[in-house]
Amino acid sequence: MLSNAEKLKRRNQELSILNTIAEALNREVDLDQALQTALQQVADLLHLQTGWIFLLNEESKAYYPAASLNLPPALANNPGRMAGSCYCLDTYEAGDLDGAANVNVITCSRLHKLVDGTDGLRYHASIPLYAYGKQLGVLNVASTDWQELSEEDLQLLYTVGDLLSIAIERARLFQRSTHLGAVEERNRLAREIHDTLAQGLTAVSLKLETADALLEGGNDPDRVRQVVRQALSLTRSNLEDARRSVLDLRAAPLEGKTLPQALAMLAEEVSQRQGIEVVFEAKAANRPLPLRVEVGLYRIAQEALNNVCQHAEATQVTIQLVLTSENLKLIIDDNGKGFDPGQISKNSFGLIGVNERAKLLGGVFHIQSQAGMGARAEVSVPIRRLK
């Protein structure tokens, strides 16, 4: 039985922990950073080793690993283990996690039948995350020297979960406001295109009509040539405006689709058009990504498939989108004739373009191949760059 002094000391410690976490979360409007900050603070202040957070994708209604801290190798090196459902998510989905008798110590089904690479982990505490009665996800914490958490520790974690839920909602609202700003900007650009290109093309049309009328009237060829040159100049100017505007606005392949959905459709289209087997696989890839990352990876897949179809003489291609605790990877394997990567021409614009796109995303591009052994192209983008 704790004395009043010990209870007061513990209460002050709890308030200090909550204040530290609240201050850290209040500084963050980026969702990924807010989640990582919460995990780190909880681990440091409660002397826990490992943790991870699953969030519910608002569009696909599937759970995805949104953040992790010090995952054991069996989970960190095997993204498939962190994909799909598990006991705690099933319980949470059923709305019974609060009342589950073993909410304090839940056997981790993701480590089922594993011995090596688990760092001794078998159990974790699962804290449900809600906002205004809406399910957001689950916060899991664990330690190798696991001891059953006290009621006070568990209550503290629930309060941390409430703080984290507020931070998640605020970050998502910030993302939505940013998205609305982007939509408004796109609409502004669309109006600008209409105003500039429409007027420019009208001017070109008038110049060409003038040139036609001058030719019909048998006028001086030099005068006709001058009008045609003016029309050409206007055309070049409008073409530059069009190219610039299209670069700003194009994201059509992903309109209304997630990246996995768009890549699956791309694989099917290439299969039908080229008569080769193209298979797409997504491994733990439910995580929502910034539009620029999705578009960049989609364009990389397009270019890589185009290279395979033009040069590889392949009959089978596999596209994989893999999310680990460290990186997001796009991998394209083919069973074609292969080549010597050291002999890639400097004029190979396709591979140059893939490499440039990977760098723009903050990632790296690697290609492995050998004559007669097919090829493997891989783009890896660190999780911290997915913002």
Describe the model:
Helix content is 50%, strand content 18%. The chain is of the alpha+beta class and 387 residues long. It starts with a helix and ends in a 5-residue tail after the last strand. It has helices spanning 4-26, 31-46, 73-76, 87-93, 151-216, 221-249, 259-274, 291-312, 349-360, and strands spanning 50-56, 63-69, 106-107, 123-131, 134-142, 277-283, 316-323, 327-334, 364-369, 375-382. Helix 1 (4-26) packs antiparallel against helix 2 and helix 5 runs antiparallel to helix 6. It folds into three domains: 4-177, GAF domain (Beta-Lactamase, 2-Layer Sandwich); 183-252; 254-385, 2-Layer Sandwich (Heat Shock Protein 90). The relative contact order is 0.09. It contains nine helices and ten strands.
What would you say about this model in short?
By secondary structure, the chain is of the alpha+beta class.
List keywords for this structure.
387 residues; alpha+beta; Beta-Lactamase; five-stranded antiparallel beta sheet; five-stranded mixed beta sheet; elongated
SSE blueprint and pairings:
Elements: H1 4-26, H2 31-46, E1 50-56, E2 63-69, H3 73-76, H4 87-93, E3 106-107, E4 123-131, E5 134-142, H5 151-216, H6 221-249, H7 259-274, E6 277-283, H8 291-312, E7 316-323, E8 327-334, H9 349-360, E9 364-369, E10 375-382
Parallel strand pairs: 6-7
Antiparallel strand pairs: 1-2, 1-5, 3-4, 4-5, 7-8, 8-10, 9-10
Strand content: 15-25%
- Going by helix content, strand content and strand pairing, the class is alpha+beta
Classified by CATH, the class of the largest domain is Alpha Beta
CATH topology (fold) name of the largest domain: Beta-Lactamase
Element-level helix/strand string: HHEEHHEEEHHHEHEEHEE
Going by CATH, the architecture of the largest domain would be 2-Layer Sandwich
Helix content: 40-55%
Let me know the CATH homologous superfamily of the largest domain. Answer: GAF domain
Rounded to the nearest angstrom, the distance between the terminal CA atoms is 49 Å
Rounded radius of gyration (Å): 28 Å
